[in-house]
């Protein structure tokens, strides 16, 4: 839970996908401009419209082009929104005491019974956390790959598009039957219009989830900061942004 919270930051306001009509993921080339974002932002939120108070849509990060920077910002918002949606659902699940019935670790250690989500994360062993972090590191590494069949989001690829897992000499050295996105190929025959509409819904849901999970943590750490959640979520006096209870780089947190 706190890992998801640690990953959250509200990225610049961005618009929905506008993918080129192609027959293959590998042939997609997308170069969005500020004008594209301004036009598409109205589809996401007609009331708010385009909102970019820091003018990030005009920036050129790390000496890259403005189109590459927009690709980065678009990808960052989509990724943060997805993490926030996972975090929000996970928070609700754990707050209601829902957990797997089997042991969490090979030594028989069960899943924590804590119903305060941040405190539950604190109760997870460091060895289990390192396994989680290792998986996340691999997924991050794989998501940054740029291959002939998958362009990087800063080089004309679609922001938010996750590359399929490839087996063999140039990929993972063992069969991977499912991809991270759409493992059962349910969207294979989906129209481009439907895909675009669902992607817009994903962005809006991700924005709401970012606000929601941060509201939960804010009220837990600073009771009264979110009046609507007063008495709804329990207080938490730990470090919500700390991946470990012990600070391995210095003094214990809160010392």
List keywords for this structure.
single chain, 255 residues, mainly alpha, 6 helices, 40% helix, globular, disordered N terminus
Describe the structure.
- It is built from 6 helices and no strands.
- Helices cover 40% and strands 0% of the residues.
- The model is unreliable at 3-29 (pLDDT under 50).
- The protein has 255 residues and is an all-alpha fold.
- It is globular, with a radius of gyration of 20 Å.
Outline:
The chain contains six helices and no strands.
Secondary structure layout:
Elements: H1 2-7, H2 34-44, H3 66-95, H4 117-123, H5 126-143, H6 192-221
Helix pairs in contact: 3-6
Radius of gyration over C-alpha positions, nearest whole angstrom: 20 Å
Task: Tell me how many strands there are.
Answer: 0
Low-confidence stretches: 3-29
Mean of all residue-level pLDDT scores: 83
Q: Number of DSSP helices?
A: 6
| Structure class | mainly alpha
Distance linking N and C termini: 23 Å
User: Biggest sheet, in brief?
Assistant: none
Q: What best-fitting shape do the alpha-carbon axes yield? A: globular
- Strand % is under 5%
- Helix and strand string, N-terminal first? HHHHHH
Give the helix proportion (percent range): 40-55%
